Every structure is written in structure tokens, then in C-alpha cells.
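Hey, resending since the last one bounced:
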Amino acid sequence: MDKFTSVTSVAAPLPMINVDTDMIIPKQYLKTIKRTGLGSHLFDEMRFNDDGSEKPDFVLNREPYRNASVLIADENFGCGSSREHAPWALLDFGIRCVIAPSFADIFFNNCVNNGILAIKLPHADVHAMLKDADGGHNARFTVDLESQTVTRPDGTTITFEIEPERKHRLLNGLDPIGLSLQKGDAISAFEAKTAAERPWL
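The C-alpha cells again:
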């Protein structure tokens, strides 16, 4: 997966609580096992009318948010079913970072597994950033993983916490398979030892 170091972008404000994974990517799009192509259906029911036309009031259908790499949401983002298609859809759309007061645990872990930085911040900070994000082209945020900071449009810097193991994986672009492959020599040594000691296996 792609490394995450930093991103500077307008942030799309989504001031809604309990945005579940079916809202992020509806169930009818779960037939694929490909990680590409789902971005066009991100927030499908909120973005499009029944005839496929865009709903002009939805944030991701408006400039400059169509190209946002940062999404600012509210409490309990990513709740509901554990579908990994949700972070796939966000990533395919171009979202590399989601900021919210809290996330559903499985969704939070799936974000890390797919190269999305999910940041938990206090309600007061998130709500201030939601107001910032309404500034359109002027609402540019910088998220820096190495320094663990979010810089708001006015230059204010907010520090966020992240577990060292998650930070290492994101900075180095390591999904669970990539993380295992870092132990390749140890795995090969174990397999060779096991084959010598238990040739019947």
C-alpha cells in the first residue's frame, strides 16, 4: 500500500454522527474484491439521486471538496458492519485522512490496513475544524504523521496520538502482509528448522 507521510489539502466537512459503513459504501457494491472503482460510489445514496444525477448540496459534489484528501466527520464514524470496502471506497475517491472524535474499532483498524490515517481528536477541536472546513478553497489543512500534527488554515497546530506500531506501518506503507514479510528471514529459518526436525510433516 502507499506510504502516508503528510498531506496538505482542503478538508471536506461531514458534520454527521453515526455514519455507518452502509452509508459509506452501500451493500449493492460489495460484490467486488477489487480495491479500485469504489470511489465513484462513495456515499452513494447521499451523493446521487435515483436517476444517477448528483445531489448538488452534498459536500463531495461541490468545489473544492471534490478533490479533498481529508475528511472531517463527527462521532462514531464507520460504525455498522465490518466491510473493508468502506476504506477502499474512501481511498479510491482520494481520501487519505479522516478526522473524527471517535471511530468504530473495526473500521479504524481497516483504515490502517489500507493506508488511511484515522485521527481521533477531542470534540471541541473537531467541531472547530468543521467550521474551518466550511471555508472552501481557503480551508487547507496539513496533516503530518511524523510530527503527529494537524495544522489548521489559521496556522494553529493540534497534536494527535497514534500507536507507534500503527505509525510505523503507515509511514512505511505496510499492510498486514507487508508487515509479515519484514520477518521473512525468521520465517524461512523456522520453516527450515521444522523441515529438518519433522520431515514427516
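The two ends are 34 Å apart (CA to CA).

Sorry for the duplicate.
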